[in-house]
Every structure is written in structure tokens, then in C-alpha cells.
Amino acid sequence: MRTMHIRNGRIIDPANQRDEVADLFIVDGKIAAKPERGDGKVEEIDATGLIVSPGLIDVHVHLREPGFAWKETIETGARAAAAGGFTTIVCMPNTSPVADSPSTIAWIKDRAAEVACVNVLPTGAISKNLAGEELAPIGSLAQAGVVAITDDGHCIQNNELMRRAVEYARMVGLPVLDHCQDYNLVGNGVVHEGYWSTLLGLAGWPSAGEEAIVARNTLLAEACDHQIHCQHLSAAGSVRQMREARARGVKISGEVCPHHIALTDESIQNFDTNFKMNPPLRTERDIDALLEGIADGTIEILASDHAPHAKFEKEVEFDRAPFGIVGLETELGLFLDLLVHRRKAIDLPRLIAMLTINPARLLGIEAGTLSLGAAGDLTLIDPNLEWTVGAQSLQSASHNTPFDGWQIKGRAVRTIVGGKTVWP
Ligand SMILES: [Zn+2]
Q: Out of 93, 115, 277, 353, which residue is the most buried by the measure of CB atoms under 10 Å away?
């Protein structure tokens, strides 16, 4: 019998409305009551001054394997997750081959079981090859063990096809995650359409390009009475629509990523491609709306959209560079710093709920709680630890972050999966 005894931490377990300083035990990989004396080896961990949280969950991660192992592998991505405090990550299907068949899902699961130090949960594509033309075999993907379907990176433009996808997903009990981008409105846009796109002569990606698909998804979530989760929200109008729809009971939800509340489109003026993401950085007004949505519960989930790219891929003209940044290792610190310390949009228990039980509920997975018998997945957090982001010292195989050199307050100091420390 292996026992881990975590002493004297502030246990925050929003699923059980628990917030108290106490000891916590993991016995044989599961959360347990205080064990009887003298039964096996005990590992003692002093958590005085630390928060003991259920292991954090990130619902939006690109692991790049199979197919793009020079950017990231399942192994390096999992290590980055552990270093960021995440015990469970959900990987997107835009790999090569695309994760649109049970065999690719099986490959990802086998590979993760072999090399990943955290739990890796695959998603399946909505459409074959993410082409938006024909549905992937959603029933077989469900059987193969995906936790959701999404065409992330792409967006199904045909509303009828999307409707059928939502209906199938409902039948097999999978949530639909959607990257909201209207191709006609966005065109070849690379940055937020506004003052800076005009001044710099870069093609604009207007807010309406996201809001139009959020509106479509709201209609379909209501028509099909099924969950559609809008990924990486960036625009004020998306939050407004979602607030109204959720008040009527529509099963629509959304997530926010750190960069969309930490940075505005003003930062693209140096043409640094580490500030190029999809959807793009927007304005102060959008940030305020996202913060308001987080504060009032319109947005209940936080995620990274961890998108590794190699240096040679990002070091090209702004128009030609790929979208996205690495995020797993800066995510918790940025959210703690921005949402809790600086803007005071939410308190610590709310932040932890948004990174644990809320994503677990969206996906219908057993994780994100410290209930007796739950998996011994924990994150120990020092909310006041001040540290500096060093792009080159990230565990991820890629280092494309706009936050290099940032001073951040708060980070995970230990990550535990199944009763074993996986970080540091
Ligand atoms: Zn996306």
C-alpha cells in the first residue's frame, strides 16, 4: 500500500464546496480517508501556505502528434502540462493523419499510455480530414473513447452539416467543441480588424467573424437541445450573445484563453509573430467584456489553446506565419495574476472551479474533484510566488510565447497524477 500524506494545505475543492486548511491522503493512487497506522510506505509532503487543488484540466491543447513531432510530441506536451500544473489535457484532432478515425484515436491513446506523464484525452474530428464536407464516423469515434468532437483550427461553414453533427453527438453523448470562424467574413485576415490592422496594412479578422458562428451555434444548440462549447472566445459580442442565450437555458458555453485577456492588438505593431493567434488579439473593450463574462459566470471554463510551432516556422513574414502560441506553462500563472490578483474578477475557488470541475462536467469525465475514491490527481499551487517566464526554459518542445520575460505572481509548485509526483 502506497500512501501520500499532504499536510496542512488549503484544500480547495469546488465540486464539494470545500475550502479549509486540512491534511489530505492518497492511498494506492486514490483520494482516501486517513489510513490506519502502520500499513506500508508513507510519503509526507508539507503543503503549508499552499493551495491543494484537484488536478487542473485543460480542454484545449494541441499535442502535434502524430505528424508534427518537431513542434511537440505527446511526451513533451504532457511534460509541459505537468510543469504548468495540469494533470489532464484534451488534445485537438488537427494532427496528421487527422484524428477522424478510431485507429488514429487508438494510436494516440496507446502512445499517451506509454509516454505521457499526465492524462491525455483525445477529441475526434467532426468532419473527415477537417474538410467540413462530410461527417467523420462520430459513433465509432465515441466508441474509440474520444471525449468530444471538434474541427478546431477549422470551422464547419455548412450549417446543415453542423446541425447533423450536433444531432449525432447528442445521440452518442459527446459535447461539440467549435472554433468559431466565418470564412467569408474573415477571408485571409491575420489580425483584429480595426485601427492597428489599418495602420499596419495587415488583413483584418473582424469580431463579426467569430460572433456570426457563435450565433449559429446558439441556434443549433437550442434547436438540437445539445451542448455546443465555443472555443477560445475573443470578442465582446460573443459574450453578450452567450449571456442572453444561457439565461434562457440554451446549452451553449465558452472558454477564454490567457492571451485574449492579457494582450491587445496594439502589441502586433512590432510584427512579432508570437502575437499572431487565431482568433486574434482584440481591444481593451473586448478584454473588459471577457472579464465581465468570467465574473458573472457566462464563461465557466478557462483553457490555453496550447499551440506549439517551431522557431523556423514562426520566423517568417507576419502574413505567412502560423497562428498560435504555447500556453500550458504560463496559463495558470497568467490567470492567477490577471483574474485573481490584478483585476479581481473572481476569487481563488472560482478560478479553480473553472480549471477543474467545470471542464470535467462539460466533458462528462470523472476528474476535477477531491471526493473520496477519486483519482489522486492534485495540483499544489503557490498563489503568491513571483516568477519570470523564460521562453527557453519551457518544457514544451517549442518556445513560441509572447510572454518571455513577464513577471507573474502565482504558479503550480507540484503536480501529482495518481498519487505520484510528475512535476517537478
Ligand atoms: Zn482554434
A: 93
110 in active site: no
More confident residue, 35 or 212: 212
Tell me the pLDDT tens digit for each residue of 217-246.
999 999 999 999 999 999 999 999 999 999
Instruction: Work out the mean pLDDT of the chain and round it to a whole number.
Output: 96
CA of 43 to the centre of ligand 1 (A): 41
Whether the CB-CB separation of 221 and 252 falls below 8 Å is answered with yes
Q: How far is the CA of 18 from the centre of ligand 1 (A)?
A: 34
Point out the catalytic residue in the list 182, 305, 377, 382. 305
What are the two backbone dihedrals, phi and then psi, of residue 5, each rounded to the nearest 5 degrees?
Answer: -115, 110
CA of 417 to the centre of ligand 1 (A): 27
> Where does residue 19 rank: exposed (0-12), middle (13-18), buried (19+ CB within 10 A)?
middle
Could you give the C-alpha distances from 35 to 4, 79, 381, in angstroms and in order? Answer: 10, 31, 25
**Is the full-model pTM beyond 0.70?**
yes
Cis peptide before 35 (omega within 30 of 0): no
CB atoms < 10 A from the CB of 223, how many?
Answer: 12
As a whole number of Å, the end-to-end CA separation of the chain is 23
Contact 325, 259 (CB under 8 A): yes
Contacts of 293 (CB under 8 A, 6+ apart): 233, 239, 242, 243, 254, 256, 299
Residues around ion ligand 1, judged by CB within 5 A, are 152, 179
Q: What is the C-alpha to C-alpha distance for residues 306 and 74, in angstroms, rounded to an integer?
A: 13
Question: Ligand 1: distance of its center to the CA of 278 in Å?
Answer: 6
CA of 82 to the centre of ligand 1 (A): 22
Mean pLDDT of 390-408: 95
Report the pLDDT value the prediction gives residue 141, as an integer from 0 to 100.
98
At residue 39, the pLDDT reads 63
Q: How far apart are CA 420 and CA 216, in angstroms?
A: 44
H-type helices in 116-249, by residue range? 138-144, 159-172, 183-186, 195-200, 207-224, 236-247
CA of 279 to the centre of ligand 1 (A): 7
Q: Are 79 and 73 in contact (CB under 8 A)?
A: no
The per-residue pLDDT for 40 is 73
**Rounded distance from Cα 126 to ligand 1 centre (Å):** 14
